[in-house]
Amino acid sequence: MKWTQTLIPTLKEDPSDAEVESHKLMVRSGMIRRLSAGVYSYLPLGIRVLNKVNTIIREEMNSAGSVEILLPALQSLSLFELSGRISAFGNDLLCMKDRHGKEVALSPTHEEVITDLIKNELGSYKNMPLILYQIQTKFRDEARPRFGVLRSREFLMKDAYSFDVDTDGLNVSYQKMYDTYCRILNRCQLDYLIVEADTGVMGGDVSHEFMVPNSNGEDVIVKCSCCDYAANLEKAVAAQTETEEESILEELKEVSTPKMSTIKDVSNFLGIEPKKMVKTLIYSYNNTHVAVLVRGDHDVNETKLAKLLSQDKIELADEKTVVSLTNSPVGFAGPIGLKTHIIADRAVSTMKNCVVGGNKADTHIINANMERDFTVNKIADIRFVGKDDKCPKCKELLTISRGIEIGHVFKLGTKYSKTLGAKFLDKTGKENPIVMGSYGIGINRIIAATIERSHDKDGIIWPIPLAPYEVLVVPVNINDNTFLDTATKIYDQLCKDGVEVLLDDRDHRPGFKFKDADLIGIPIRITVGKGYKEKGELEIKVRSNNKIYFSTPENLVREIKTIITSLHAK
Checking DSSP bridges between strand 230-232 and strand 253-256, what pairing results, if any? Predict the structure, then answer.
């Protein structure tokens, strides 16, 4: 392709709304343009990269024995009512009514649609196992779209669904997709980490996320500094804290803490560490309330708490409810004498002589002890892991970092097949629900994560499997026939030999062209310039390491193919 015959509108300045490098560079390199918040058009360079990712995914999914289909983006809201996920998606679900008054939604995901499809097609155990996949646009009405295509309202995904007769079959299908995702990301030359994850609105019992470590990522990764334990923050657990050694249970005492409703204020006033205090928080769900106890330096993990309570959604109780249950203003609740269901985090169960709220305005109680002074209904892991926590497997220190989620695999089990009536007859003629798995990978996110991991101050550094073109040919002066004719011959020969080439045939200064070359990040640049006129040599520059080679036109194709092969092998 010649530059003048395509659309590559590069920009010199960062867009004003861009916060992360991938967003800045995708706009500046002419890959995307914003239509509205979280909605983007893909220009020629962008669509070429998308197609590269799609091709890798299709090849690996087909190689794994899965079969491609295409499901509708427009879905009946009645399917979400059957699965019970309308409230789980909440305002992220983009809903509307058609001309007949029927409620429909733009697909945030396709579990309901695929289950509704296969319930009429897989009637017998003989039709399984089966894995179907698609590449389709998804829609989520994000409250605050940001970071370019990393958090958009419209995005492209590959999602796959497995169908098995039992859990053993699901385990096989799950491992097959897990391994396939590894091959996909290896071919994309992405550094990634696989972590245990919460299943969220998807449901099921087991899931793993494929993360690209990056400081701009919105997900938090908890990883052991020693062993292979890794999980996202919602799922991560820490080793149980040891019981405090204090053998004497001190006398319970009330202390005045005027206008001190925060852990920080009370700990400073009493001269104790926050970890010696217990926070009492009141949560509401389904017209029910529960008191939750966590250590003063810990935070409630509402994902864990909701799962413990078998709820899709929980929320902190309003002020009126807190006052009604505790007889005190917000900030002074405590477990002693509290007449409601109480759940304590595991770390609270090991504490001795701790400080709790007094259920009275401007009052706290010191030397409180579980069992002696208050009882709880359940002890469970309901908190977020913190920076000083230790690994649940080997007891070494946990590290906390950020990452970009690019893939997620789930063991759904029978969550959807039961609610939507997808059944099969087994060998004995007995009817059973189909056992399912779900496997998603974000195509736009792979592109953005690649740029986040692979760029410098001058622009993108594409790994060759994803690059829009493999080679850029730059004649320094198109008004000099020697330069332009030679560059055109090189371009024609490389195209003939199957190399993906872009010829920069614009009438611009060499410095302008070189800056654009670095910005769009094509892996190999061939410069037809002064050295060719003087010595008959062409300059070859590799973008990823800035190494420069020289070649004669006669040896050029062989040199380029050798470099391409070496870049693919990385």
Answer: unpaired
d(Cα 284, Cα 544) in Å, to the nearest integer?
Answer: 54
CA 412 to chain CA mean position, Å: 19
Tens digits of per-residue pLDDT, 103-151? 999 999 999 999 999 999 999 999 999 999 999 999 999 888 989 999 9
**Hey, what are 261's tokens?**
């409703």
Residue 141, both tokens: 């009405």
Note if the bond before 15 is cis, omega within 30 degrees: no
Task: Write down the domain spans for the chain.
Answer: 44-73+107-236+400-451, 253-380, 469-568
**Stretch 203-224: mean pLDDT, rounded?**
89
Rounded distance between C-alpha atoms, residue 299 and residue 297, angstroms? 7
User: pLDDT tens-digit profile of 67-106?
Assistant: 999 999 999 999 999 988 888 888 889 999 999 999 999 9
Contact status, residue 384 vs residue 352, Cβ threshold 8 Å: no
Contact 441, 64 (CB under 8 A): no
> For residues 170 and 411, is the Cβ–Cβ distance under 8 A?
yes
Q: Does pTM top 0.85 for this prediction? A: yes
- Topology, domain 44-73+107-236+400-451: BirA Bifunctional Protein; domain 2 (3.30.930)
416 membership: H or E segment, kind and range? helix 415-420
As given in the structure block, the two tokens for residue 353 are: 């002589």
**515: which 2 tokens?**
């800056």
DSSP for 224-235, please give it.
ESSSS-EEETTT
SS (H, E, C) 446-487: HHHHHHHHCEECCEECCCCCCCCCCEEEEECCCCCHHHHHHH
Which fold, 469-568? Rossmann fold (3.40.50)
Amino acid code (one letter) for 220: V
Least confident of 43-47, 84-88, 120-124, 537-541: 84-88
pLDDT at 204: 66
Furthest C-alpha separation in the chain? 96
Pairing label, strands 32-36, 74-76 = unpaired
The tokens describing 424, both together, are 């099969």
3-state SS class at 532: helix
Domain 253-380, CATH: 3.90.960.10
* pLDDT tens string 185-194: 999 999 999 9
pLDDT for 345 beyond 80: yes
Average pLDDT, the chain: 94
Strands (E), 240-375: 253-256, 278-285, 288-295, 315-316, 342-345, 354-357, 363-368
Judge whether 548 and 564 are in contact, CB under 8 Å: no
Separation between Cα atoms, residue 46 and residue 450, nearest integer Å = 13
Q: Tell me: the pLDDT tens digits for 401-450?
A: 999 999 999 999 999 999 999 999 999 999 999 999 999 999 999 999 99
> Which one-letter amino acid corresponds to residue 530?
K
